[in-house]
Diphosphomevalonate decarboxylase (Chloebia gouldiae), 310 residues
Amino acid sequence: MAAERTLAMATCTAPVNIAVIKYWGKRDTDLILPINSSLSVTLHQDQLRTTTTAAASRDFTEDRLWLNGKEADVGHPRVQACLREVRRLARKRRGGGEDAAVLSLSYKIHIASENNFPTAAGLASSAAGYACLVSALARLYGLEEELSEVARRGSGSACRSMFGGFVQWQRGERPDGTDSLALQVAPETHWPELRVLILVVSGEKKPVGSTAGMQTSVETSPLLKHRAEVVVPERLAQMMQHIQERDFEGFGQLAMRDSNQFHATCLDTFPPIFYLTDVSRHIIALAHRYNAHHGHTKVAYTFDAGPNAV
Ligand code: DP6
C-alpha cells in the first residue's frame, strides 16, 4: 500500500512581461476578460522575477499567504480564484477519487512569494506574482496542462507571463472565458538582439491601480472604446508582422505609439488618470531626439500604469 503523503512543497520562479500592445479594460471583471487582445515581451528572469513556494501539509490548520515576508490576505478573491481553479483541475485529473499516494486536496496550504523588484510600481509585479502562484500550485498538485487561463484569473496580464518570448493574449469571444488565453507568438531566441532596459523613475506604489483605473476608463473614455474596436485589431496584425520580420523600425514605432495611446486613454478617462511624470516625459523626448540624431529608430519606449520607462 502506498504511504500517505503528509507534506509536499514546490518552488517556482516567474518572469515579468511588458506589453507593446496594451491591455486596458475588461468586458467581464469577475472572469477578467479583456476588451481587446494584447501582445507582450517576456523579460529574462536574471534581473526581475518572482519566486514562490507553495506547501501543503496535513498539519496546517488554515491556508496562509506571505508576500515579501509579510503575511497577506489569503482570502483575496483573486488568490481564491486561482486556488479554486487549480484544485478543480487537480480534482478533474484524479477523476474525482482520492488516492492516498497523491497529495490530498483537502490539506491546507502555505504560500510564500517574493519579488526582487518594487511591488505595485507599474513593473508588472502582479503579472509575475500570479503567474508564479499558479505555476507553484500546479507543480504542487502535479498538473501539466497549459494554465494561462487560470493565471488570468489572478491578473489579466499574468496570463502572458506563463510563456517566454513574444506572447499574445487573445481576447476570446466566449462569455465563460475558455478562449481568453495566452499563446507564444515567437520564442525569445527569435530576436536575440532585442534588449530591454528598465529606467526606474519611482519605486513608489502607484496612485491608481490598474484594476480600478481601467474600469473607470471603460465607463468614461470614448477613446478607449475606439481603441479596442478599431485601433488594436489593426495594430496587433502589424505588430505580429514586425516581430516575424525582426523589423525594429516598425516594432519600436508601433510600441511607442501604443504606449502613448494607452496614456491618452488615461487622460481621456474622467476624472483623468496620470501615470507619467515629468521625468517620464523627459525620457520620451530623449528617445525621440536620440532616434532623430541617428536618422532611424534605435530605441523605443513603453510605459505601463506607472512612471517607469521600459
Ligand atoms: C497597463 O493585468 O495589472 O500593464 O487584470 O486588473 O489585474 P488586472 O490588470 P493588470 O493590467 C495591466 C495593464 C497594463 C497593460 C498590459 O500589461 O497589457
